[in-house]
Design goal:
mainly alpha, DNA polymerase, domain 1, hpI Integrase, Chain A, 3-stranded antiparallel sheet, about 45% helix
Length: about 375
């Protein structure tokens, strides 16, 4: 009797088809390799591949020890992500990986191919930026599988990133800021005031505590510690402008009311349990995200291509318009790479183009200065 591989199928109580392979070798006990709830075509290909390995003498019997994708992803969270990443980041990982697990969760880890990952990403009706975020998450997961000796190579190797619109979110213009301001509820004005005049990331604003503010030194500290992690994992200081200081002093004693009818009082005196976080719910819990409310305000104001991160870029743009040195802006923003700061510093809005051409000398001015026109130009 020669070695062979047999494909078997059984159905669960819910009617799902589950495939498994039986590896039969002379003088050895049959081995069962569960494939899970996969497509018939995929199962057939696995059978062919194993038969080829048997005939070439390269088949490894310990292939049955490979965990399913779902099992390994859970291990990834337990042994790595939960301790090395912020809670919000871990929640983001889970949200991004959920559709992938729904499709490939029952596959064995060593059954996932580059072709499957590329097909999965291109087949989803999502923006290219979201595709790239999912790809980054998958790369991290499979890289850990390689580091922990579950795989020899990651199936994400060679998968190219998808083209994105350059720059992502953008800074707001003066005109857009004024238009937005007129449509905001009082508590939204407080949030946007803090974000525009501090340049903090939305998550950093959510985690901001009053104990982080040094009133004597006129600065606040964006803290990065065990419980509050910044993107660069570094704390930084931000000096307070007069407007930002006044707003924070007001918020120290007054709690913005984010829910309720428009006629309700927009602020209430803070109670003892509401004095930890600058922006918190009435029970004292920090506000987890401003994305939905700020995005809705942008939509009402007719501002397109903007997100909460745009307010951080607006801070950078305002510094650039005041000719603030780029290194100072980099420190205030907490950028690890000055090229990130320069990307916003060198961006140009339409009103700046008008200012540029308005700065050209008039013909009368050129005549007075005895400028010589380029030969061949209009006379």
């Amino acid at each position: 009797m020669r070695s062979n591989v047999y494909l078997k199928k059984h159905r669960s109580k819910k009617g799902r088809a589950y495939y498994y392979l039986i590896v039969r070798q002379p003088g050895k006990k049959d081995r069962c390799i569960p494939l899970g709830n996969v497509r018939r075509e995929f199962a057939e290909n696995q059978k062919i591949e194993l038969n080829q390995q048997l005939r070439a003498g390269t088949y490894l019997s310990n292939s049955i020890l490979a965990p399913t994708v779902s099992e390994f992803v859970e291990k990834f969270f337990q042994d790595f992500a939960n301790g090395a990443r912020a809670k919000k980041t871990v929640r983001s990982y889970r949200e991004m990986l959920k559709p992938f697990l729904a499709r490939f969760g029952e596959y064995r880890l060593n059954q996932i191919t580059r072709q499957q990952i590329e097909g999965y990403l291109t087949g989803r009706e999502i923006a290219n930026r979201t595709r790239n975020i999912v790809l980054s998450n998958l790369r991290l997961v499979f890289q850990k599988a390689v580091e922990w000796d579950y795989l020899q190579n990651s199936p994400t190797l060679g998968v190219r990133r998808f083209p994105e619109e350059k720059g992502g979110s953008r800074a707001l213009t003066y005109k857009e800021l004024v238009s937005l301001w007129d449509r905001l509820r009082p508590w939204q004005k407080s949030v946007i005031m803090v974000m525009v005049f501090s340049g903090m990331r939305p998550g950093e604003v959510s985690n901001l505590k009053f104990q982080d503010i040094n009133w004597e030194e006129n600065e606040l500290i964006v803290v990065s510690d065990k419980n509050r992690k910044t993107k660069t994992r570094r704390s930084r200081k931000i000096k307070l402008s007069p407007d930002l200081r006044d707003e924070l002093l007001f918020l120290r004693e007054n709690l913005p009311i984010m829910r309720g009818a428009p006629r309700c009082k927009p602020f209430r005196a803070r109670l003892a349990h509401q004095r930890e976080f600058v922006f918190c719910h009435e029970d004292g819990r920090p506000v987890g995200s401003f994305r939905k409310s700020i995005g809705s305000a942008f939509k009402k104001a007719g501002i397109l291509g903007a997100s909460p991160h745009s307010l951080r870029k607006t801070f950078c743009s305002l510094l650039a318009r005041r000719n603030i040195h780029v290194k100072a802006a980099q420190r205030l923003l907490g950028h690890s790479d000055p090229s990130l700061t320069l990307e916003v510093y060198t961006s140009v809005e339409d009103d700046q183009l008008q200012e540029a051409v308005n700065a050209l000398p008039s013909m009368d001015e050129m005549k007075k200065e005895k400028f010589r026109l380029v030969e061949g130009g209009n006379k």
